Amino acid sequence: MTDFVVVIPARYASTRLPGKPLREINGLPMIEHVYRRGCESAARDVVIATDDERIAGAAEAFGATVCMTGDQHRSGTERIAEVADLFDWSDNTTVVNLQGDEPAMPATLIDQCAALLDDSAADLATLASPLLSDADFENPNIVKVVLDDRGNALYFSRATIPYPRDAQARDAARAAALHHHGMYAYRCGVLRRLVAAPPSPLELAEHLEQLRALSLGMTIRVGIPAQRPGAGVDTEDDLAAVARELAETS
């Protein structure tokens, strides 16, 4: 299996849930739960990347490796690229971007995402699951992805894709779309190419940074997760739901 590292980008500011990484879930800050998921994976190292001293202090208190980054980054990808340069990782080093608001992400899926890069034809890798409902298919807060016959991403969108031309086509359209999970694996050389390129028109339209990779002609390999990941955290309701989920699985 691919040798890899995990980087967890974490910022304090959040429009819907300020101080999100430090919000407590069952007695621990959320960022510690995410760090534990990373440590449960096969990664040879797990790094928390932040520009906030409060997050850094909390992470160091529970024994995490912390990398302080600049505060100018517009995305987790940009923050991770700075980490790669600060640690002088080679272009061939594989990095998994584990979002700091995914405390219920199973470690097995981190490994699965990294393993997709065992195929040298893939530039990036990510995971996506079948949609659970028609409501999810139409929900702009759920990012959809459609694939080619080799399992590579054709397009990601917040819109309903593919568009069902008529009622008879709806089931086929929903079956073709997958619910994208925001975890990525990439080699550092690809990561550096991504952050060096300007945002693409598609990325600006959808506010989805993975569209920059597609616009650059990169191949994004998409795996169907062996188990459905737990919920991410964006709201107070999400926080409560994840607390219940983690309590049940502990």
Question: What does this entry show, briefly?
Answer:
By secondary structure, the chain is α/β, with parallel strands linked by helices. It has helices at residues 30-40, 53-61, 76-86, 107-115, 134-138, 170-176, 188-196, 201-206, 210-215, 236-249, and strands at 4-10, 24-25, 28-29, 45-50, 65-68, 94-97, 124-130, 144-147, 153-157, 178-187, 220-223. 35% of the residues lie in helices and 22% in strands.
Please tell me about this protein's structure.
The protein has 250 residues and is of the alpha/beta class. The chain has a single domain, classed as Alpha-Beta Complex (Spore Coat Polysaccharide Biosynthesis Protein SpsA, Chain A), CATH 3.90.550. It is 35% helix and 22% strand. It has ten helices and eleven strands. The chain has helices spanning 30-40, 53-61, 76-86, 107-115, 134-138, 170-176, 188-196, 201-206, 210-215, 236-249, and strands at 4-10, 24-25, 28-29, 45-50, 65-68, 94-97, 124-130, 144-147, 153-157, 178-187, 220-223. The strands form two sheets. Strands 1, 4, 5, 6, 7, 8, 9, 10 and 11 form a nine-stranded mixed β-sheet that branches. It is globular, with a radius of gyration of 18 Å. The mean pLDDT is 93.
Number of E-type strands:
11
From the spread of the alpha carbons, the general shape counts as globular
CATH class: Alpha Beta
Q: What name goes with the CATH superfamily? A: Spore Coat Polysaccharide Biosynthesis Protein SpsA, Chain A
What integer is the average pLDDT? 93
Number of separate helices = 10
CATH architecture: Alpha-Beta Complex
Structural class: alpha/beta
- Which residue ranges are poorly predicted, with pLDDT under 50 across at least 5 consecutive positions? none
**Under CATH, the topology is which?**
Spore Coat Polysaccharide Biosynthesis Protein SpsA, Chain A
Helical amount: 25-40%
Element pattern in H and E: EEEHEHEHEHEHEEHEHHHEH
Largest sheet: 9 strands, mixed
List the domain count as a whole number.
1
Terminal-residue CA separation: 28 Å
Indicate the radius of gyration in whole angstroms: 18 Å
Share in β-strands: 15-25%
